[in-house]
Design brief:
This protein has about 425 residues and is α/β, with parallel strands linked by helices. It is built from 16 helices and eleven strands. About 45% of the residues lie in helices and about 15% in strands. This is Class I SAM-dependent methyltransferase.
């Protein structure tokens, strides 16, 4: 079909109700749209079939993961141009304005004429299969975590680098290396928790063990790290052995709800609470409170979304839920603080490090792109595309203040309300 790009441009312009923000190239080699813009490439008609059968974000996500569409040029610029109308950078968008019924039918007819009839294309194999069980039950959470984390430690090594830290780094200088920024983040957490030799530290959602290793080596603590990812635990245990810290660090495959050997002097939860979910968050907060001794500190490091006018209308982002973090949920930081306070904690400090996560994500994307062929070999082309899209879009979301990330420092006060906190903010270990 000659000049498919021009017809595509007309359809997309109708959907977006404005000028086409990207250049379009169709499967027949034709192009349309602004010459200076990144190019959205439709490699085949199957991309349109996906949009016909699943209009909106899920159809686009399936086309991207399957390789039916791609972007040539700067991916960040492409996402930024689309953001006002299509993409919210990893965060669920407000309800989009519905098109009038007649216009919707005309656009659907245009797409059908361009694509041709077809049966529904099968979803890419990387899509999460139908889930069973109660949302955020122990069994279902284990399945969700496995989907995201048990994809091969070698793949994560390519993306995360030697630090093996999968959470927002802390950049003392924008010119610092990713490894320097991650070391600074680990040390910041240890200082906020006022760790000292002989203390017991619990790290909930310990990943590959970087924080417990840092705390044991540099602060002399006895640390327990828990994860429900088998592959994370395997590598974390190997790292503990290699560091000669088996007498001070224990790695467990254990759900936070089943930890019974408190009290601990300090508890850290870094990038884990996003998996807890609103239905289980009070259980999470209550459990961490029980596991702390009086006077013990909690450092809760968590991504936050913006509050919505109608919280009952909050919907999980389909791309993220189907391909990245199944059952993951983001909450406003105010809700997190309220839940911790309701469990009995006194919240003593809150630090927003939103810009730091944008820098971290851009560094991870650079690592992935620099090792693209190896990443595809280790996982699959589809999963590599998932990671590139979600990390690049999330970097923009943090930069544009669509989502944030906060470190909340809280304490379980002791007798008479004693907090053990210093009088001056920032002198954490005093």
């Amino acid at each position: 079909m000659a000049q498919a790009a021009g017809r595509l441009a007309g359809v997309l312009g109708g959907v977006l109700e404005g000028p086409l923000p990207l250049r379009i190239r169709a499967w027949d080699g034709s192009e349309a749209g602004p010459a200076e813009a990144p190019t959205l490439v439709f490699r085949n008609r199957r991309a349109l079939h996906r949009l016909l059968w699943k209009p909106g974000e899920l159809g686009l996500a399936r086309a991207w993961v399957a390789g039916d569409i791609t972007v040539e040029g700067d991916l960040y610029e492409a996402l930024g141009r689309l953001a006002p109308s299509v993409w919210q950078g990893g965060e669920p968008a407000p309800a989009r304005r519905a098109l009038p019924d007649g216009r919707t039918l005309r656009l659907a007819a245009d797409v059908l004429a361009l694509a041709g009839p077809s049966l529904p294309p099968a979803p890419p194999e990387e899509e999460v299969p139908r889930r069973h069980g109660v949302r955020h039950s122990i069994g279902r959470d284990r399945q969700a975590i496995s989907h995201h984390y048990d994809v091969g430690n070698d793949f994560y090594a390519l993306v995360l680098g030697p630090s093996f830290v999968y959470s927002c780094a802390y950049w003392p200088d924008p010119e610092a290396t990713l490894e320097q920024a991650q070391a600074a983040k680990l040390d910041l957490i240890c200082r906020k928790l006022a760790l000292r030799p002989g203390m017991r530290l619990l790290d909930v959602g310990c990943g590959w063990g970087s924080l417990v290793l840092h705390a044991a080596e540099h602060y002399g603590v006895h640390a327990v790290g828990v994860t429900i990812s088998a592959e994370q635990a395997d590598l974390a245990r190997k790292r503990v052995v290699d560091a000669g810290l088996t007498d001070r660090v224990e790695i467990r495959i254990q759900d936070y709800r089943r930890i019974e050997d408190g009290p601990f002097d300090a508890v850290s939860s870094v990038g884990m609470a996003e998996h807890v979910g609103s239905v289980a968050y009070r259980t999470y907060a209550d459990q961490l409170y029980r596991l702390l001794r009086p006077g013990g500190r909690l450092l809760n490091h968590q991504i936050a979304r913006r509050p919505l006018e109608d919280e009952s209308g909050y919907a999980v982002d389909e791309f993220i839920d189907r391909y990245v973090f199944p059952d993951g949920e983001l909450a406003p930081v105010g809700s997190t603080v309220s839940a911790l306070e309701s469990a009995g904690f006194e919240v003593r400090d809150l630090e927003s490090i939103r810009e730091h996560y944008a820098l971290t994500l851009r560094a991870w994307v650079a690592n992935l792109e620099a090792n693209w062929s190896e990443a595809v070999r280790l996982v699959s082309p589809g999963r590599a595309r998932i990671w590139r899209l979600y990390m690049a879009a999330s970097a923009l979301a943090f930069e544009q203040n669509n989502i944030g990330v906060n470190q909340v420092l809280a304490v379980r006060t002791g007798a008479g309300g004693a907090s053990g906190m210093p009088l001056v903010r920032g002198t954490w270990g005093s």
